[in-house]
Amino acid sequence: MEILSIIPARGGSKGIKRKNIKPILNKPLVAYTIEASLKSKYITKTVVSSEDEEILAVSQKYGAEVLTRPFELALDETKTAPVMLDVVEKLEKSGYNPEFVVLLQPTCPLRDENYIDKAFEFYFEALKQGYDSCFGAYDIGWTHAKWRVLHDNKLEALYDFRVRPRRQDTEEHYRMIAENGAFYALRTSDLKKAKDFIGFNPIAYVTPRIIDIDTEDDFQKVENILKAKNNA
Question: Is residue 223 classed exposed, middle or buried when 0-12, 13-18 and 19+ CB atoms within 10 A define those classes?
Answer without folding.
Answer: middle
